[in-house]
């Protein structure tokens, strides 16, 4: 499978967690657990997801080394072996660094890349426009923008999105804001949906509890952290299918069934719960929910999910 344009993007794309080995108790230089990652990918492929996204936020992109980042993308591409789509995480708040990362990714495979806005340096809208234009024009790669102001303090305004949607290589947007009815970014997301309708541009939700909401606007699906849990990914696929058929009532029923999965995944900062789900350390400075007394309630919530609704995760205990 391969994504050549926005029309190829639809459904459920899992922001793959990067599992680590228990080979550094300080959680500074752990190696990647590729055997575990292979099982995780195989389970998602078996469920039927449309694609995976290695080394996004959920994949510990902020803390893996540069070498690990590229090695894990290479591993994911090779292990998937065309069974599902791959979109590679390649974002940075430095345009030059992101270009260099994308160029390295493109040596591995011609896959689209997911690129975030300027965290910390928080560029102006003009800076954001130039950032994404430069990524698209300098590399020739297909770019999916990632709008997540809750993590970056950097927001892509709808007018900026619409300008960038005219770039042939900017093919989509992961919109991780509150665009549900009454949400503070509802009107902005409506502008994006209406302004890109009929164009080769894919609007995806980055909010796991808003699949139906984005598809009602004409969106194509979800980029999901919760979908690392195979049972949740299966429910998401059914939700997307119901929406594609126009059965919005069934879609909302399925979205409600997803609630305990989403709540457990985000009971504390993502990807902290992933460490418990997949019995993996996380690099510092992320806390390890498995051993941190402050997370006793969240640990219990995640464990209950494994015991009741997510038996596939028991293999990692």
Structure characteristics:
317 residues; alpha/beta; TIM Barrel; 9-stranded parallel β-sheet; 12 helices
Task: Describe this structure as you would to a colleague.
The chain is an alpha/beta fold. The protein has a single domain (6-245), classed as Aldolase class I (TIM Barrel, Alpha-Beta Barrel). 44% of the residues lie in helices and 12% in strands. It has twelve helices and nine strands. It has helices spanning 34-47, 66-80, 95-108, 125-139, 149-152, 158-164, 186-196, 211-216, 230-244, 248-265, 272-277, 296-308; strands at 11-16, 51-54, 85-86, 88-89, 113-116, 143-147, 170-175, 202-205, 221-224. It has a nine-stranded parallel β-sheet. Helix 3 links the parallel strand 4 and strand 5 (113-116). Helix 4 runs parallel beside helix 6 (158-164), helix 9 runs antiparallel to helix 10 (248-265) and helix 10 crosses helix 12. The longest helix has 18 residues, at 248-265.
CATH architecture type: Alpha-Beta Barrel
- Domain module tally: 1
Count of DSSP-assigned helices:
12
Rg, Cα atoms, Å: 18 Å
- CATH superfamily (homologous) name: Aldolase class I
* Top-tier CATH class: Alpha Beta
CATH topology value: TIM Barrel
Taken as a percent bin, the fraction of beta residues is 5-15%
Order of helices and strands: EHEHEEHEHEHHEHEHEHHHH
Distance between the termini: 32 Å
Mean pLDDT: 97
